[in-house]
Amino acid sequence: MASILNISSASTALKTLQTIGQDLAQTRMALSSGKNAAGDARGGAFWAASKTINSDLTASQRVQESLALGEATVAVSRQAAETITDLLIDVKDLVIQSQLGNTDRNALQAGVEALSDQVRSVVEMSQLNGENLLSNGSQANGSGQVQMLSSYDRTNSSIAYSRISVKKQDLRIEQSEIAASGGSYRGHAGSTLINSNREGSIDLNSLSAEAGTAYGLTMFGLDPDFSTFDMFAYRTTNIWLQSQTELSNSEMSYVVRDGDTMHDVAKALANRWGVYAEANGLDRDVLNVSARNGALEITSKKTNNSDRILVTVSQLGADAGNRIGGGLEDLTKIDVTSDAGAQAAMGQIEGLINVAIDAGSALGTDQRRLESQRVFHANMAAVLKDGQSAIEATDLEESAARIQALLVQQELAAQALSIANQSPQAILSLLR
User: Fold this and answer.
1) Which of 167, 95, 85, 71 is nearest to 377 (CA)?
2) Are residues 70 and 115 located together in one domain of the fold?
3) Residues 265 and 156 in one domain
4) b/e for 56-81, b at 16 or more Cβ within 10 A?
5) Is 242 helix (H, G, I), strand (E, B) or coil?
6) Digit-coded pLDDT (tens) for 147-162
7) Could you list the residue range(s) of the whole structural domain that residue 76 is in?
8) Counting C-beta atoms within 10 Å of the first and last residue's C-beta, which end of the chain has fewer, N or C?
């Protein structure tokens, strides 16, 4: 039945025309901006995905900035470690010269001290953004590690960040100090008897690696008839058990740094043994000490059931107030003004060079880790940008064709509306 109050065909035609007009406006907007519109369901989904990618790109940028700063910080310290290695090689040259006859040892000693001051200066200057990776003398928990932002992991509702831990390499020349009294002392934290078996080990892995804890290595030789070795040369304590006072003055001691493992402790004690043996002319065939997997490996080629050596490790807790020394503290002990000092210096400088080389190598490894992670994030950011562009970009050919189709539909809808609006005129003509 026809009605002059509500023309349903005209209302339908009007709604169709309005919908076509909205589609035409959105398509024109997408064509002019080059981006999909967010108004319809399809565009809204794309818009949401694009915003998520944009959030990830922002997170990736922050990570890349952190990695770049961390990489630069490690690079500065690595370069400083290499410079210090070169300076120590110069010290070695002076030590070698001190072994020759007709040399001015006082002048050589002055050269050693000048190079030592230069090493100290390089360590103090090797910092970036307030971070010095060549100084680790604090007992504060975590002070021996630097955490650098390295990656992020997206979950359904948030982003979690991960970090790369870079261990500090201590190349200071400050002296350690072990308390002669007080604290928790164990004269027998571990030991092994080297006799006819000619080998043994002291596992340190069950002991504490708390920063500030001190460890000492002692030996007590027994060869009453001196048939195999000079037992007094292989004694570093008056009795088989080292006292705390003897530990405080021991040349074979080490104060734990924050971040150390017991492998680091074992390696340090083995190095101190090497320096001591070189300085005192000890025969490595009689006794040799090395480190492996947190244990001290003790070997001999000459001991037997009657001619034997007891090797012991002592421990003094951090509660004694021990002071952590620098990794190159023996540099200040080098004295080439005497024959004995020049001989001892040969073992000392070799050990110091190895410490500096190990530090540079470790920092180089950390630098490569950070660089690799930074490159990964840069590549991932490029992929995300490509994906975002693919989601947002408008297909120009498709949009142009859609506009033409919508224009035709708009014209047809307008005609339909016009026809629908003419139907009341037919009713009026019947009433004339």
Assistant:
1) 71
2) yes
3) no
4) beebbeebbebbebbbebbbbbbebb
5) coil
6) 887 777 766 666 677 7
7) 35-175+329-393
8) N
Is 15 found in the same domain as 40?
Answer: no
The owner of tokens 């360590």 is: 123
> Do 152 and 242 lie in a common domain?
no
- Are residues 300 and 212 part of one domain? yes
Radius of gyration of the chain (CA): 39
Q: How many separate domains does the chain show? A: 3
- Which one, of 202, 203, 191, lies nearest residue 308 by Cα? 191
List the alpha helices (DSSP H) in 203-282.
244-248, 262-280
pLDDT tens digits, 377-411: 777 767 666 665 555 555 555 656 666 666 666 66
Report the C-alpha gap between 132 and 112 in whole angstroms. Answer: 25
Cβ distance 90 to 115 under 8 Å?
yes
pTM score over 0.85: no
Q: Is residue 251 part of a domain?
A: yes
CA dihedral over 27, 29, 33, 36, signed as positive or negative: negative
**Other C-beta atoms lying within 10 Å of the C-beta of residue 165:** 13
Same domain? 119 vs 166: yes
